[in-house]
Write a structure and sequence with these properties.
Distance between the termini of chain B: 118 Å
Mean pLDDT of chain B: 80
Shape of chain B: rod-shaped
Strand content of chain A: 25-35%
Order of helices and strands of chain A: HEEHEEHEEEEEHE
Organism (chain A): Aliiroseovarius halocynthiae
Protein name (chain A): Oxidoreductase
Largest sheet of chain B: 7 strands, mixed
Oligomer: heterodimer
Shape of chain A: globular
Distance between the termini of chain A: 22 Å
Number of helices of chain A: 4
GO molecular function, one term (chain B): ATP binding
Helix content of chain A: 10-25%
Number of domains of chain A: 1
Strand content of chain B: 5-15%
Number of strands of chain A: 10
Pfam families (chain B): HATPase_c (PF02518), HisKA (PF00512), PAS (PF00989), Response_reg (PF00072)
Structural class of chain B: alpha/beta
Number of strands of chain B: 17
InterPro entries (chain B): CheY-like_superfamily, HATPase_C_sf, HATPase_dom, His_kinase_dom, HisK_dim/P_dom, HisK_dim/P_sf, HPT_dom_sf, PAS
CATH architecture of chain A: Alpha-Beta Complex
Low-confidence stretches of chain B: 1-16, 546-554, 600-610, 736-743
Radius of gyration of chain A: 15 Å
CATH class of chain A: Alpha Beta
Number of domains of chain B: 5
Number of helices of chain B: 27
Strand order of the largest sheet of chain A: 2-1-10-5-6
Low-confidence stretches of chain A: 5-21
CATH superfamily of chain A: Oxidoreductase, molybdopterin-binding domain
Chain lengths: 166, 857
């Protein structure tokens, strides 16, 4: 049900945009996130530092999580913003963590008001010890649909790489 | 016709019966449903816990803690052994482990787990390790390199804690999972049980509803059957059945109604009853009646049984109907059910029956009146004939003439008997034959009958005898004339059928109870007998034996019919026993009783000739009868004056004081009854003279009517010398003999002597004094009567006559008797005149007593 709705929303909003990967800002500091996707010339890679991520536009999610105590304020870019920027509307994303933990997130999860790639928690950048520097956060409090084991497993922290797949 | 009761209503009413059961089941089902809901929520929760949960991949995370610790240990070992140690990798592994332990320390998922002792201690050990190690990791590369050996050593020492953490968590979660599974299982079990109960409840409900449904269906079928039966009954009813509502609108109309009233059902339904079947002249009354019923609820004719009314047919005929009206309450309101029966045929039959009865009664009356008239009309000339013959017989006749006269008389008497028979039958059949009971000397009666019949018997060379069986009894109470008639008929019959034989009349009296007796009169003959097939019919009218005898015997055939009727009227029975060729026995048994010999001193006294000559008035219009009767009376030594009708009779009675008046009843100008009333009402010389009716009509109620008119007695024509002399003697003796006709006697000589010897002179004198006192008292009280007080003196007079008779005061007694008689007749003049004489006659009597008393001394 949800996935169907998300698919519809995605189609409506994504279709008119045709952004180019070159628009991503080239990294100047430490690369904290590497993105691989199928471009016009085969697999293309985008490397982003914190500024590159922030440059895509930040969103805040206020929510509690099962791993923390109390309501946290997470700031990051929406996954939907990223998929729109890449012009990708389908397939899955293979997300890989620092400790080589990997999960698959369907592109259909990337909706406005959906998951974000959080880079700050409670107005501070997140260290590795604090599950940083990038943590996939869903708005758990917003909907029970986001309080499932599957969503929890997709909430990968210490994220380093996103591989877009068909 | 009655609307089928709504099915819903029926169902509801049925439900009421099993209400309790249904409510119980419904409550059970409700409770069960509630339980199921609660349990389902539990199951959903439990499954939710199993399914999503806020768990993340707990086991994985926990084992990952150990894995990441091992990674850290390996990185520390590699850095220790390497010449160019990868400090960045070490730091990264530390951070990852640090992050993991942070999660385990902070995350709510592990809050329960953290309570576990082993886990808690292991976590604490790991946190201590982190705290000790963090400064070294966060320090410079040089410091880190320096601290590397201690770090490795510390790491290796902490290894078991990481291992314990992982293991304890695993066993904890395994337990948790077990508990959750058990809870879920229990919940599921409860759910299953509850659902089982619900299922049973639902099945029960289903069965109950099914049974209720079946019952309803049966009831419905029964109701339909009942309705169709009712319809069949109504439609096959011979009575018209019409159902209307309160306004008189026809709701139902059966087959018989179609036939009787001629309207078809289709035209009748919905019409107003009044316009349909009620004749125009009654419609207003009908409408008023309906209005009254609607307004006041007055059900005037409802349930009142059958009422006779008139109905109107479709063709305009008005005919009589019988109506029974009933009211009934239905679901659509009150209705009236009218049952109507066409009774025109019955009415016509009734009318015919009444006509038939009327004409039968008319003809019966005509017959009776014809017979009575005939008997009168025949008797009157016959009476004249016989009277003339009697007179002729007393003249000088030669032998041949005497024989002729005798034969004529015999035939005349026979004819008279036949007429009497017919009249007797008529009288009996009219219910007017009542017994006139009185003292009868049976022996004398039988003797007389036998002697009167022996002549006829001798003519048949038959002997006729009579006798008593058992002790002779002379005086009994019965109806003399009827007994006589019965015996004469039976003996006459026996004589007719017996030739050269013997006839015996035997009498017997048997006591049944004290004061009650039965008289048996048997007439046996040695005649030809009666054939068995005739025996049953012989008491029927006009039965005259068989033809061969008929020729020899003759007769009206009424003789035995009269016997039967007379015996019946006396409350007795008559039986017959006969053997053909040997003879016949008739036995009459009549209830009676013994009576004393009535004192009839005068009856035995001498012959009519011995009587004083009387002054008699004979009022009779028929010349022959007048002549005959006058001759008879003259022959008896009386003076006779005659009058040809009532008017002339009244005139003569007024002018002359007669001793006795004979009065014919039916006469021209003025009849006997009116004449009698005139004589009694007037103030003529013969006002108190006894009047005797002469009549051919002998019906008892007429007898009473004559007496009411003022007549004293009645004799039936034809007159004969004996009857005349008897009646004459009776009434002359009843009357106070006029003083001129007899020797005055103040005091009976015989009585005086006898009395004096019995009681002595002193008592005798005292007795006279007492009577003297009574007379004084009587005169003091009743000495001056008026016309109105006259009836009051009757009883005292009678009483005082007793006293004066006892002392033998003949003249005073006679005087008092005449006063009593005059008082009874309302003759004020005679009564007061005689009362005035009492004192004078008594004084003379008393003087005579004194003289005689002196003489006898």
């Amino acid at each position: 049900m949800l996935s169907k709705a998300i698919a519809v929303v995605t189609f409506i909003f994504v279709a008119p945009f045709t952004l180019i990967s070159a628009e991503f800002k080239s990294p100047e500091g430490d690369v904290i996130l590497t993105i691989n996707y199928d471009g016009a010339t085969g697999t293309e890679t985008i490397e982003l530092d914190l500024a590159g991520i922030e440059d895509l536009g930040l969103t805040t999610i206020e929510t509690s999580t099962i791993w923390t105590e109390g309501v946290q304020s997470f700031v990051g870019i929406e996954l939907a913003t990223l998929t729109r920027a890449l012009g990708i509307a389908s397939g899955t994303i293979r997300a890989v963590a620092l400790n080589d933990y990997a999960v698959e997130i369907p592109v259909s999860d990337a909706v406005t008001g959906g998951p974000i790639l959080a880079v700050m928690r409670n107005a501070a950048p997140m260290s590795v010890r604090d599950k940083g520097p990038v943590w996939v956060i869903y708005p758990y409090d917003a909907s029970s649909d986001y309080r499932t084991e599957v969503i929890y497993s997709r909430s990968i922290w210490q994220l380093t790489k996103l591989d877009f797949q068909e | 016709m009655t609307p089928e009761p709504s099915r819903v209503e029926a169902t509801l009413s049925r439900m009421v019966n099993s209400k309790t059961g249904l409510i119980g089941l419904a409550i059970l089902a409700g409770l069960t449903l509630f339980s199921i809901t609660v349990l389902s929520i539990n199951v959903a929760r439990d499954i939710g816990q199993l399914d999503s949960a806020r768990s993340d991949n707990i086991q994985w995370t926990l084992t990952q803690a150990e894995v990441e610790f091992l990674e850290l240990e390996r990185a520390a070992m590699l850095a220790r052994q390497s010449d160019a140690p990868d400090l960045t990798g070490l730091r990264r592994e530390f951070d990852i482990f640090y992050s993991r332990i942070n999660t385990l320390t902070q995350s709510s998922i592990y809050s329960n787990l953290r309570e576990d002792e082993t886990f808690g201690q292991s976590l604490l050990a790991l946190r201590t390790f982190l705290n000790e190690t963090t400064p070294e990791i966060d320090g410079t590369d040089a410091d880190l390199l320096t601290a590397l050996p201690q770090l490795l050593d510390r790491t290796q020492k902490t290894g078991p804690s990481a291992r314990r953490l992982s293991n304890s968590a695993l066993s904890y979660f395994a337990n948790q999972a077990d508990i959750r599974r058990a809870t879920l299982l229990a919940t599921l079990r409860n759910l299953a049980a509850t659902m089982g109960i619900l299922t049973f409840a639902l099945i029960g409900l289903l069965l109950l509803l099914n049974s209720a449904n079946r019952r309803n269906r049966l009831n419905m079928i029964a109701a339909q059957n009942s309705q169709s039966r009712t319809e069949t009954i109504i439609n096959t009813s011979l009575d018209a059945v019409i159902v209307t509502d309160l306004t008189g609108k026809v709701l139902d109309y059966n087959n018989a109604a179609e036939l009787i009233f001629g309207h078809t059902r289709e035209t009748a339904l919905g019409k107003e009853l009044g316009e349909l079947i009620i004749p125009e002249k009654y419609r207003a009354a009908h409408a008023a009646g309906m209005e009254r019923m609607r307004a006041s609820g007055d059900r005037n004719v409802v349930g009142r049984g059958r009422v006779q009314l008139e109905g109107l047919r479709a063709n305009g005929d008005v005919f009589p109907v019988e109506l029974a009206l009933q009211a009934a309450k239905t679901a659509d309101g009150e209705v009236f059910v009218a049952f109507l029966r066409d009774i025109s045929a019955k009415i016509a039959a009734d009318k015919e029956l009444i006509q038939a009865r009327d004409s039968a009664l008319e003809s019966e009356q005509a017959k009776n009146s014809f017979l009575a008239t005939m008997s009168h009309e025949i008797r009157t000339p016959l009476n004249g004939l016989l009277g003339s013959l009697a007179l002729l017989r007393d003249t000088a006749l030669n032998t041949k003439q005497s024989t002729h006269v005798a034969n004529m008389e015999k035939s005349g008497r026979l004819l008279m008997n036949h007429i009497s028979d017919v009249l007797d039958i008529t009288t009996y059949d009219a219910g007017k034959l009542e017994p006139h009971l009185g003292p009868v000397n049976l022996s004398k009666l039988l003797k007389d009958i036998v002697s009167s019949q022996s002549g006829a018997a001798m003519a048949h060379h038959t002997t006729l005898e009579w006798g008593w069986k058992g002790n002779p009894v002379d005086w009994i109470e019965t109806d003399k004339r009827k007994i006589q008639h019965i015996l004469v008929n039976l003996i006459g019959n026996a004589i007719k059928f017996t030739h050269a034989g013997r006839i015996v009349l035997e009498t017997e009296l048997r006591a049944d109870a004290p004061g009650k007796m039965t008289a048996y009169l048997r007439v046996s003959d040695t005649g030809c007998g009666i054939r068995p097939d005739m025996i049953e019919k012989i008491f029927d009218d006009f039965v005259t034996g068989d033809a061969s005898y008929n020729r020899n015997t003759g007769g009206t055939g009424l003789g035995l019919g009269i016997v039967k009727r007379f015996v019946d009227s006396l409350g007795g029975t008559v039986t017959v026993d006969s053997t053909v060729g040997a003879g016949t026995v008739f036995e009459v048994s009549i209830p009676t009783r013994r009576v004393a010999n009535p004192a009839t001193p005068h009856a035995e006294e001498g012959s009519p000739n011995a009587m004083a000559s009387l002054d008699i008035l004979l009022v009779e219009d028929n010349e022959i009868n007048q002549f005959v009767a006058k001759e008879m009376l003259l022959k008896a030594g009386h003076q006779v004056a005659t009058a040809a009708n009532g008017k002339l009779g009244v005139d003569q009675a007024h002018a002359h004081p007669f001793d006795l008046i004979f009065m014919d009843i039916s006469m021209p100008v003025m009849d006997g009854r009116e004449a009698t009333r005139a004589i009694r009402a007037g103030a003529g010389a013969s006002k108190t003279t006894p009047i005797v009716a002469l009549t051919a009509n002998v019906l008892p109620q007429e007898h009473e009517a004559f007496l009411a008119d003022g007549m004293n007695d009645l004799i039936t024509k034809p007159l004969d010398a004996d009857t005349l002399s008897q009646i004459t003697r009776k009434w002359v003796l009843e009357m106070s003999p006029p003083p001129s006709h007899r020797t005055p006697s103040l005091l009976s000589e015989e009585h005086f002597t006898e009395m004096r010897e019995m009681i002595g002179p002193a008592q005798h004198a005292a007795l006279f004094d007492r009577v003297s006192g009574e007379i004084s008292d009587f005169l003091a009280t009743h000495g001056n009567p008026t016309q109105n007080t006259l009836p009051n003196i009757i009883e005292p007079t009678h009483k005082i006559v007793g006293s004066t008779s006892a002392i033998g005061a003949t003249d005073v007694s006679d005087l008092l008797r005449s006063i009593e008689r005059a008082a009874k007749m309302g003759d004020f003049h005679t009564a007061s005149q005689n009362i005035d004489n009492i004192q004078r006659v008594w004084d003379k009597t008393h003087a005579e007593f004194v003289v005689r008393s002196a003489g006898s001394l």
